[in-house]
Amino acid sequence: MIKYSFVIPAYNNKRLLKNTLIALNYQENFGKEDYEVVIIDDGSDDNTEAYISDINKNYACQYIYIERDEKSCRSRARNYGWNAAKGGVIIFIDSDILINRNYLKEIERCFDIDDNIILFGTVFRLKEDISLEDVEDGSIFKQFVSGINKIEYLEERHIFFNIFSYNNYFHPFSWSFVFSGNVAVSRKNLKAIGGFDEAYVCWGGEDTEWGYRAYNNGLRLVYNHKLEALHQYHQEEIQKKNSSNKANLDYFFRKHPQALSFLPEESRYKVLSGFSKNEENTIKTEAEMRDRLIRILNDVEKNIRDTNQKIEITVALRDKNRFLEIKEIIDFLSKRPGILLIVKDYNETGNLDVWIQLMGKRESTPMYYPMNREKFDDFIRNYRSSL
Fold this sequence. Notes:
Layout lengths: L3 E7 L3 H10 L11 E7 L6 H5 L7 E6 L8 H11 L4 E5 L3 E3 L3 H11 L3 E4 L2 E3 L6 H5 L2 H6 L11 H8 L18 E5 H7 L12 H11 L3 E4 L5 E3 L4 H20 L9 H9 L12 H19 L6 E7 L5 H12 L4 E7 L6 H7 L8 E4 L3 H13 L1
Parallel strand pairs: 1-2, 1-4, 2-3, 6-9, 7-10, 11-12, 12-13
Antiparallel strand pairs: 4-8, 5-10, 6-8
Helix pairs in contact: 7-12
């Protein structure tokens, strides 16, 4: 019985798609009976189907071709895909994404706790081409996921979680972190939310809008910091983003005028734009964009992180045998106002990361930090302080 369906929209991207499909071959402890891949070819004219046909797949695979027309878009492709999928959990990734071998293990860990969630992870943005051999033997993940030492590889969400918390519900606009390149939802909840808005014909924004609807529908939006993926290098994506971002943001705020209404209009656009380069033509490189991003986030931090007149309390989980006790303490403190509650997880064998987010917002919503990310967080912190 198929439990998980990967839905991958693709358009004239056969080389990167092949790497994506090869990486999917190596899911630990999952076989053909457990997961499938649904490729939605959105009208490619680069002979994609033939190019990927010789991949030794360890999973069932559907290839669906849609004729291209004026209504072609990633939203329509994804909607075709999840409606054709057989799995109880739908996983959306893009045709340039590489997933690690423990990916489904992490998906299953979270959905076994509660399936009324939108589960998402982050991505590292590669800056050079990679070989098939590095994908096949898994060495590409060892190079990047475990040892990032350049700010250019990070996306804005990495920096935001570092500044605030790995508990998505500590953030005042948690729904804005839902990106379709690495996200999962149960089929039943996907039907309840509805699919992606096909009015987003240009690049970008449809996934955040979908996340906003999920949030308003009462689903918990859970960030799994172990659900890291790699975004393969290709320069044209930045160009697509810059050409269409503003129009899609205008459409979002027409459709949802109450979204981010507590922020000034300029800040609202900055939050949802992902701080893209098109806002300032003088920015020429990825490194410059990250510098500017961090400065903006530092400014946002001053406006929305209210720590004045709060009692700071740190709760640390070191001994897994104290897991239930620590949960009771966190639950008790988080219901009391006036507390800056910081939770440090040194153990991580339990599911404290998911449980804290399932609590949602509280009087004193906990800040959560997995301590196995400490070196990674120190790297970001030191970079911020050097600017």
